[in-house]
């Protein structure tokens, strides 16, 4: 189920029954990733300037590169015929938590009863899941489930202790259900966002 590749990423899995393949990004995938990110951005229909999205897009894989503590997984599926086509992606990056945000998360983890192997502080290894997207034509065949499972495996392999993510309340109810199924619990906000009143924040101890 797991195989190495030339970029050092380590998650590759296939589901023969559904003809689904999950594998890490390689440089030849750059245009495919840009197409998926563009579809994600258009589907989201939000101004992401506050996340510096355009710079992220222009420098892919950037902070999602494996040598920077990140991960970028792609999903492929046979939707028509026997040809695998790109149908989804999920990225992960290192997350630095400091100051008041760090304290809020630590207190919230205690409130939730999340068992801590060590106190949450500046040395705690945390990651964030980003750019989770499955094309509309490929939803309903557990591609999102496979992407999250593989990304969490990679996070554990890299030694992360906590995984964080955010999602829009009104647009991503299905995603919220999926996150909670994987053990994510709602947390305090871990960064400043103009969309705070529309956003759920989640945390999971790995």
Helix/strand layout:
Elements: E1 13-15, E2 20-24, H1 30-44, H2 53-58, E3 71-77, E4 85-95, H3 99-112, E5 126-134, H4 143-157, E6 162-168, H5 173-181, E7 185-186, E8 199-205
Parallel strand pairs: 5-6
Antiparallel strand pairs: 1-2, 2-3, 3-4, 4-5, 6-8, 7-8
Folded structure, characterized:
It is a single chain. The protein has a single domain (13-205), classed as Gcn5-related N-acetyltransferase (GNAT) (Aminopeptidase). It has an eight-stranded mixed beta sheet with strand order 1-2-3-4-5-6-8-7, with helices on both faces. Helix 4 (143-157) links the parallel strand 5 and strand 6. Mean pLDDT is 84; it is low at 1-11. 29% of the residues lie in helices and 25% in strands. It is α+β, with helices and mostly antiparallel strands. It is globular, with a radius of gyration of 17 Å. The protein is built from five helices and eight strands. 31% of the residues are buried. GO terms for molecular function: acyltransferase activity, transferring groups other than amino-acyl groups. Residues 20-206 form the N-acetyltransferase domain. Keywords: Acyltransferase, Transferase.
Structural features:
single chain; 206 residues; alpha+beta; Aminopeptidase; 8 strands; globular; disordered N terminus
């Amino acid at each position: 189920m797991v195989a190495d590749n030339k970029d050092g990423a380590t998650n590759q899995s296939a589901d023969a029954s559904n003809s689904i393949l999950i594998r890490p990004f390689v440089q030849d995938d750059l245009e495919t990733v840009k197409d998926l990110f563009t579809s994600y951005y258009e589907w989201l229909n939000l101004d992401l300037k506050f996340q510096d999205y355009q710079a992220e897009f222009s420098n892919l894989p950037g902070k999602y590169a494996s040598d920077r503590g990140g991960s970028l997984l792609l999903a492929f599926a046979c939707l028509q015929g026997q040809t695998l086509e790109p149908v989804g992606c999920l990225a992960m990056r290192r997350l630095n938590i400091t100051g008041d945000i760090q304290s809020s998360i630590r207190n919230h983890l205690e409130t939730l009863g999340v068992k801590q192997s060590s106190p949450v502080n500046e040395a705690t290894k945390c990651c964030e899941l980003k750019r989770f997207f499955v094309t509309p034509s490929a939803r309903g065949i557990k591609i999102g489930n496979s992407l999250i499972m593989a990304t969490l495996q990679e996070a554990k392999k890299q030694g992360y202790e906590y995984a964080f993510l955010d999602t829009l309340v009104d647009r991503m109810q299905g995603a919220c259900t999926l996150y909670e199924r994987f053990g994510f619990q709602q947390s305090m906000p871990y960064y400043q966002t103009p969309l705070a009143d529309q956003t759920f924040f989640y945390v999971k101890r790995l």
